[in-house]
From TrEMBL, chain A:
Superkingdom, natural source: Bacteria
InterPro entries listed in its UniProt record: ABC_transp_perm/SBD, MetI-like, MetI-like_sf
Record GO biological process: glycine betaine transport; transmembrane transport
ABC transmembrane type-1 domain: residues covered: 27-208
CDD domains assigned: TM_PBP2 (cd06261)
Organism the protein comes from: Streptomyces qinglanensis
Similarity remark: Belongs to the binding-protein-dependent transport system permease family.
A GO-annotated cellular component: plasma membrane
Membrane topology label: Multi-pass membrane protein
Keywords carried by this UniProt record: Membrane, Transmembrane, Transmembrane helix, Transport
Matching PROSITE patterns: ABC_TM1
Protein name: Osmoprotectant transport system permease protein
UniProtKB/TrEMBL annotation, chain B:
Native organism: Streptomyces qinglanensis
Gene Ontology, cellular component aspect: plasma membrane
Domain of life: Bacteria
Location in or out of the cell: Cell membrane; Membrane
A biological-process GO annotation: transmembrane transport
InterPro entries per the UniProt record, alphabetical: ABC_transp_perm/SBD, MetI-like, MetI-like_sf
Cited Pfam families: BPD_transp_1
Stretches assigned to the ABC transmembrane type-1 domain: 35-214
Alphabetized PROSITE patterns for the sequence: ABC_TM1
Topology of this chain in the membrane: Multi-pass membrane protein
Membrane-spanning segments: 39-58, 70-89, 95-113, 149-177, 197-217
Protein name as it appears in the record: Osmoprotectant transport system permease protein
């Protein structure tokens, strides 16, 4: 029981929120890192996946990438990159590591989304004389949108988690509250930091689920997704 | 030989090279201990998770009302980043391996419950009706018809959970029980490149070996799934685990 009171006291102490290394600064860093990397990885992955799906190539790549992404430990990649030549350029080691782990869900879902677009609809559109570009923009993209958004959601949650780990090799973000707490044997701070990270991850997941529902042009359950009701 | 490849002033240890055979040779026992710790933490977590996931999935299937909460709670747990999960479990267990094992059990549970449920849902109604017609009770139906038919999906889930657990165990270094992660963490603090790269490489090898072993087990246990290459090619896209696995494409943080 004591620990809960201590955590509450830590969270309600104003000086923990403001100033250098305070919660607000760390939260800002976390959101900035996650946002920049989400934009970067979408800009890299989505055009490539849409094109590959459109021409129907690279299916094995899409599947193997997500398997590889699972087998490689994020912590190891973060440490390796921060100790390598990239480590000299501030946040870049962290950004590269974050983007690397956000790419697989984006690529796999967008590719699958385009490939699984109803073939009869695609054939009908082609029969109506649509060009390749029109087909992709007006038929395949809208049909693939639910799965693309699932990929974006998975990538965003992944980015929040990876940005937390980035604190271990000395990056910014809310993870720093946890590592600093461990360093000072300050358990209330460790738990308070963890609660903030968990809350941010769940919030990002919720917001993107709602966005996904609003953006879905057909307002239906996304295909290929066992969504909890 | 020993002055060029060994610990001399030109040796790879003194130069702090990424690749250093001398490091692997001289720290053999340290690497072995870390690998052993890594393997038992991972294996114990997946075994406990499987023992919990089976009754949970069966319950969620039998009682409709339990389904949404079971899926909802496990999804929430899965969304929590690993560092935060271990940190939240710290006051419960203190600095111990139980922190890491419990965290990994909670993550594996999500994958397993989903996959087992997807596998049970995909059991053909005809098979169930035929068994009922032959006088099978609910228990025998589950053990002799439904679970065997759900086995490929279950094992696909075990593979995903195991590979994920191998990768996430490294984060356990924060409480001192991260297996190879401990070596990565220490190597990071002392800027020891060979140690970080070697431990990371063993970690990836462990994940790949575990995945291949489980794939082999899957083939041994479910010989009917490869009754012919053509049949498999037709069935593969409809495999019940595909949808469940897709949703959980990565859990690397």
């Amino acid at each position: 029981m004591g620990i809960l009171t201590d955590v509450w006291t830590w969270l309600t102490t104003g000086s923990h929120w403001t100033g250098t290394g305070g919660v607000l600064q760390r939260l800002g860093e976390h959101i900035y890192l996650t946002g920049v990397c989400l934009l970067l990885s979408c800009a890299l992955a989505l055009p490539l996946a849409l094109w590959l799906g459109h021409v129907g190539r690279g299916g094995a790549l899409a599947v193997n990438l997500s398997n590889a992404g699972r087998a490689v430990p994020t912590f190891a990649v973060l440490v390796l990159l921060s100790m390598g030549p990239l480590g000299r350029y501030g946040d870049w080691a962290t950004i590269v590591a974050l983007v690397l782990f956000a790419l697989p869900p984006l690529l796999t879902n967008a590719y699958t989304g385009v490939r699984e677009a109803d073939r009869e609809v695609v054939e009908a559109a082609r029969g109506m004389g649509m060009t390749g570009g029109q087909l992709l923009r007006q038929v395949e993209l809208p049909l693939a949108l639910p799965l693309i958004m699932t990929g974006v959601q998975t990538a965003a949650v992944q980015l929040v988690a990876t940005a937390t780990l980035a604190a271990l090799p000395g990056g910014g973000g809310l993870g720093r509250l946890i590592t600093a707490g461990f360093g000072n044997y300050d358990t209330p701070q460790v738990v308070a930091g963890a609660l903030l990270v968990a809350a941010l991850a769940l919030l990002v997941e919720r917001v993107l689920t709602l966005t996904e529902r609003l953006l879905d042009p057909m307002r239906r359950q996304p295909a290929g997704r066992t969504k909890p009701v | 030989m020993s002055s060029t490849a060994g610990g001399g002033p030109q040796g790879c240890l003194a130069q702090n090279d990424w690749l250093c055979w001398t490091y692997v040779r001289t720290r053999q026992s340290e690497l072995l201990d870390a690998t052993v710790e890594h393997v038992w933490i991972t294996a114990l977590s997946v075994v406990i998770a499987l023992a919990l996931a089976l009754p949970l999935a069966v319950a969620a299937r039998r009682w409709r009302a339990a389904r949404a909460p079971a899926l909802g709670v496990t999804t929430i747990l899965y969304t929590i980043p690993s560092l935060a999960m271990f940190a939240l479990l710290l006051p419960v267990f203190g600095l111990s391996a139980a922190v890491v094992v419990t965290g990994l059990v909670l993550y594996s549970l999500t994958v397993l419950v989903r996959n087992i449920l997807a596998g049970l849902d995909a059991v053909p109604g005809e098979a169930r009706q035929a068994a009922e017609g032959m006088g099978y009770g609910p228990g025998r139906l589950l053990l002799e018809v439904e679970l065997p038919l759900a086995l490929p999906a279950l094992l696909a889930g075990v593979r995903i959970a195991t590979v994920t657990a191998v990768s996430l165990t490294t984060v356990g270094a924060i409480v001192g029980y991260g297996g190879l992660g401990n070596l990565i963490y220490d190597g990071m603090e002392s800027y020891f490149k060979a140690q970080v790269l070697t431990a990371s490489a063993i970690c990836v090898v462990l994940a790949v070996v575990a995945d291949l072993l489980l794939l082999w087990l899957q083939r041994m246990l479910t010989p009917w799934t490869r009754a012919g290459a053509r049949k498999r090619a037709v069935r593969a896209p409809a495999a019940p685990s595909a949808a469940a696995a897709q949703d959980l494409v990565g859990k690397a943080g």
